């Protein structure tokens, strides 16, 4: 009874790996396509990861910092601000990118001013709430900058709402800019196909171990029966 279950779990993980490959291919095509206007992108059925442009202005006084974010082995912060488009009613949470932590004692980074009349970035729709972060979220304020230990879109959106803004149900992640102090690199998916393949190998290895155990036990039983019969 256990063997078919282990094999089924292994095959399921292989299917998940193939789904992730297809998803990554789709997202890569979207992320490298020419930018379109925000209003045009939102008419698409699934605009996640589409590159968009938006004219508008930043909303001052909204600086949210997510701590414990790593890039190339360095610890730092991801910075979120608020953007009011001219052709969209709701303000939009914008990820401006990553800044390194200077030292252990630094609480929040020195955030460059958010000054723009037009921005370009990729749309990011939440893949679901992180209940662990949401249930244990503790915001800390340092000179008007709000700090959170881990990212959860719902938690960030609720904080923005407490500040008086009912934000859109997505984020704009700004495009890389060599002249910017921010590092802008985000994975297309949180869990790559290789992770599912590793899980599949584990399930198949457990199935093989079960078969080997079954064979060994039955060989011992046969030998025992032969010895008692003689």
Description:
It is found in: Cell membrane; Membrane. The protein is of the alpha/beta class and 230 residues long. The chain has 2 domains: 1-30 and 189-230; 50-174, no CATH class. The protein has 5 helices and 8 strands; from the N terminus they run αβαββββαββαβα. It has helices at 2-32, 38-41, 131-135, 153-162, 193-229; strands at residues 36-37, 51-71, 74-85, 92-100, 118-124, 140-142, 145-148, 171-174. The chain has a 5-stranded mixed β-barrel with strand order 2-3-4-8-5. Strand 3 and strand 4 form a beta hairpin. Helix 1 packs antiparallel against helix 5. The longest helix has 37 residues, at 193-229. The chain starts with a helix and ends with a helix.
Strand order of the largest sheet: 2-3-4-8-5
| CA-based gyration radius | 25 Å
Please give the largest β-sheet.
Answer: 5 strands, mixed, barrel
**Class based on secondary structure composition and strand pairing:** alpha/beta
Number of strands: 8
Overall body shape:
elongated
User: What is the helix/strand order?
Assistant: HEHEEEEHEEHEH
In short:
This protein has two domains: 1-30 and 189-230; 50-174, no CATH class.
Question: How is the secondary structure organized here?
Answer:
Elements: H1 2-32, E1 36-37, H2 38-41, E2 51-71, E3 74-85, E4 92-100, E5 118-124, H3 131-135, E6 140-142, E7 145-148, H4 153-162, E8 171-174, H5 193-229
Parallel strand pairs: 1-2, 2-7, 4-8
Antiparallel strand pairs: 2-3, 2-5, 3-4, 5-8, 6-7
Helix pairs in contact: 1-5
Family: Belongs to the SURF1 family.
Organism: Kangiella marina
Keywords: Cell membrane, Membrane, Transmembrane, Transmembrane helix
């Amino acid at each position: 009874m256990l063997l078919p279950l282990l094999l089924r779990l292994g095959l399921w993980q292989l299917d998940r790996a193939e789904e992730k490959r297809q998803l990554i291919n789709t997202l890569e095509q979207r992320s490298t396509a020419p930018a379109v206007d925000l209003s045009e992108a939102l008419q698409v059925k699934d605009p996640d990861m589409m590159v968009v442009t938006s004219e508008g202005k930043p909303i001052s006084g909204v600086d949210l910092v997510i701590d414990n974010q790593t890039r190339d082995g360095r610890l730092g912060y991801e910075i979120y601000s608020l953007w009011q488009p001219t052709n969209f009613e709701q303000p939009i949470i914008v990820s401006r990118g990553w800044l390194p932590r200077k030292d252990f004692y630094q609480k929040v980074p020195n955030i460059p001013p958010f000054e723009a009349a037009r921005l370009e970035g990729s749309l990011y729709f939440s893949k679901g709430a992180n209940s662990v972060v949401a249930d244990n979220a503790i915001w800390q304020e340092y000179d008007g900058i709000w700090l959170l230990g881990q990212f959860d879109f719902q938690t960030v959106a609720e904080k923005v709402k407490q500040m008086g803004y009912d934000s859109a149900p997505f984020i704009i992640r700004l495009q890389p800019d060599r002249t910017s102090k921010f590092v802008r690199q985000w994975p297309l998916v949180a869990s790559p196909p290789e992770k599912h393949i590793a899980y599949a190998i584990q399930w198949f290895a457990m199935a093989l171990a079960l078969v080997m155990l079954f064979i060994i036990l039955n060989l011992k039983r046969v030998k025992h029966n032969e010895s008692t019969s003689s």
